[in-house]
Amino acid sequence: MARDSCLARITAGVAVGGAVGGAVGAVYGTYEAIRYKVPGLLKVRYIGQTTLGSAAIFGLFLGAGSLIHCGKSY
Predict the structure, then answer these.
(1) What is the largest CA-CA distance in the chain?
(2) How far apart are CA 40 and CA 48, in angstroms?
């Protein structure tokens, strides 16, 4: 397996993880902002922080999983 394909797999894993994590974070952040009655524009900030945090964490884990999986030869 070439290095470029391994790097492409890791990049794709981070991108997919970021997209899925961002979507889940946006839904969860919206739910929490409504549940705790966050006022005004702070609601947008809260949803944004939740979205970015969730996207970063999930992207990190999926990228790490892709890195581990890339090292295996079948």
Answers:
(1) 54
(2) 14
Report the candidate in 26, 60, 64, 57 with the shortest Cα–Cα distance to residue 43: 26
Q: pLDDT tens, 1-49?
A: 455 689 999 999 999 999 999 999 999 999 999 999 999 999 999 999 9
* Residue keyed to tokens 């006022």: 39
Token representation of residue 38:
């966050």
Residue 22: partners with Cβ closer than 8 Å, 6 or more residues away:
51, 52, 54, 55
Burial of 62 (0-12, 13-18, 19+ CB in 10 A): buried
Please indicate, yes or no, whether the overall pTM of this predicted structure exceeds 0.70: yes
Please report, for the chain, the start and end positions of each structural domain, with discontinuous segments joined by +: 20-69
